[in-house]
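Table 4 source record.
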Amino acid sequence: QIGNFTASTYGAACVPTPNQINGLNQSQLYYVYYIDPTFAGGAIAPIATQNVGDFEGRAGYFLIGSIVTQSYTARYAPSTYAVVGSSSVVNAAAAYDNNVTTYAIVMGSWWSAVTGSGGPSAPVYTVYTAGGVCVWSGFPPGAITAAATLHVVASVTGPTGVPLWHAVITPSIGGTALTPVTITSSAGSTDYTFAIPSGTDLSTVSLKIEASIGAGPPPGGGTVSVNLFETYIQEEGVL
């Protein structure tokens, strides 16, 4: 924002109109000048440039000052979730509580139970499976003005060997899925990233995480879990 001032070279009062310049890049040096060929002062229009040749040595062109613009990062989080798999999701809201020490857990599991008998030493087992699927959405509405990145900070834990299992991370924009990440072995906390184009309405962005596991021979059971520490969209904007 530029306040009113008196021109030091000719003493006239100047009123910057407008008194604010928008659309500047972050962390950049800008020179702000104005044009007043009649030395009248009054309402003047401030102009930002990174080229000193735009005003130096030119009659009627006057430098107001210079500034290095601020640096900031806009960050957006979802606000709701929906459990759509056959397995419950633990602490789903922890995925957007801005606390990386808490996490949502999406689980897939298989287990077996004795449901009959083939004799005194031959129990009959039935094998069951349940897959975890949860969708996070509710990012704030409105189009972003710069390219952004969806961050999915998660770890995955699953059994070694058989049965087969996998975890899938799939973001969507406007109902169209981006290229998913499929994980088939245990992994520590990792920041999985996905590009969100400039102009995207964030309210159309959602994130689906799935965890599933194939049944093994009974008796027994197993679990695969995705621990979602935090998910958010980060935009490098302009001032």
